[in-house]
Amino acid sequence: MSNVIAPRRNALIRLPDWQPRLIRYVQSKSRKPFEVGENDCATFWIGAVEAMTGHRPVQVTWRNMADCLAMLRANGDSLERAFQISDALGPGAVVDRSTLSRGDVVLYHQPNQGDTFGLVWDQDTLFGPGVEFIERESTIVAQKVWRV
Q1: 91 falls in which pLDDT band (50, 70, 90)?
Q2: Cys-Cys link to 117, which of 45, 60, 102, 123 (CB 3.0-4.6 A)?
Q3: pTM tops 0.85
Q4: Where are the beta strands (DSSP E) in the chain?
Q5: Nearest C-alpha neighbor of 12 from the set 64, 56, 53
Q6: Where are the alpha helices (DSSP H) in the chain?
């Protein structure tokens, strides 16, 4: 049983005021602790995309770590497959790391936590949910980049 419902199959378009919307979204999450189903790496990128486009690309239905881990295991422990990110963001969404820009969604590796999703803030910085609040990382750690 999948915990992700019907991703959008077409490309999402950023709204004209996407930057202030994204800033407000990140500010609203900046002091919230990690919580599965509420403020985890998947809900973070999904909420950011919704802030930029006005559309929620994927509906999250898990509410606890056991459900989330079961979904990951069912998808070969691949965050990318489990959250259907490439399908949700549309064809051609994967871009070269050298072109990353604000609002791009990234897959990166966090020491002691494993692979996670984050959001590019600028050429040097990405944000992702940490244990106590949103954490900054260098964009150098980005393994894969999706453009919204």
Answers
A1: low
A2: 45
A3: no
A4: 4-5, 59-60, 94-95, 105-110, 114-122, 125-129, 134-138, 142-146
A5: 53
A6: 18-29, 41-53, 65-74, 79-82, 85-89
